[in-house]
């Protein structure tokens, strides 16, 4: 099992929870879903780039009235929540198709099905995730 984090310097809590599994059945690797080179480097470090199950859980939130949010912050949120997932799937899907096996599990949000006031941009990112996954 490989757990990935954008910043492995923050892995202390994960290491503590993993206990003796860390280094035996669990590895922690660096992966930033907003960086294609980071994704490729992580996958290239896996023998044969063989991924049986991808669990995509990367995401950021945004709460507040739309007029208080900067366009740059909104783009950053979409880059992580939606395009980050797209980048990951684009990297693992060809091998899964070739092998005719593998699973992709996406952690989304109820806000991908129903918007909530002051969560408009976050909900939009999760609606995008839902539409992307349904279309795959």
TrEMBL record:
Keywords per UniProt: Oxidoreductase
One cellular component (GO) term of this entry: cytosol
Family that this chain belongs to: Belongs to the short-chain dehydrogenases/reductases (SDR) family.
Name assigned to this protein: RDH8 dehydrogenase
Pfam families xref list: adh_short (PF00106)
Highest rank taxon of the organism: Eukaryota
GO molecular function, one term: oxidoreductase activity
PANTHER family: RETINOL DEHYDROGENASE 8 (PTHR43391:SF93), RETINOL DEHYDROGENASE-RELATED (PTHR43391)
């Amino acid at each position: 099992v490989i757990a990935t984090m954008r910043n492995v310097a923050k892995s202390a809590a994960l290491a503590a929870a993993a206990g003796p599994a860390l280094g035996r059945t669990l590895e922690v690797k660096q992966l930033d879903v907003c960086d294609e080179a980071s994704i490729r480097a992580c996958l290239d470090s896996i023998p044969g780039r063989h991924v049986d199950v991808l669990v995509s859980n990367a995401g950021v939130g945004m709460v507040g009235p739309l007029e208080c949010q900067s366009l740059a912050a909104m783009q950053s949120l979409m880059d992580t929540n939606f395009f980050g997932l797209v980048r990951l799937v684009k990297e693992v899907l060809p091998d899964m198709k070739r092998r005719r096996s593998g699973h992709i599990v996406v952690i989304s949000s109820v806000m991908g099905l129903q918007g909530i006031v002051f969560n408009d941009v976050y909900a939009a990112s999760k609606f995008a995730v839902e539409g992307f996954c349904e279309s795959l």
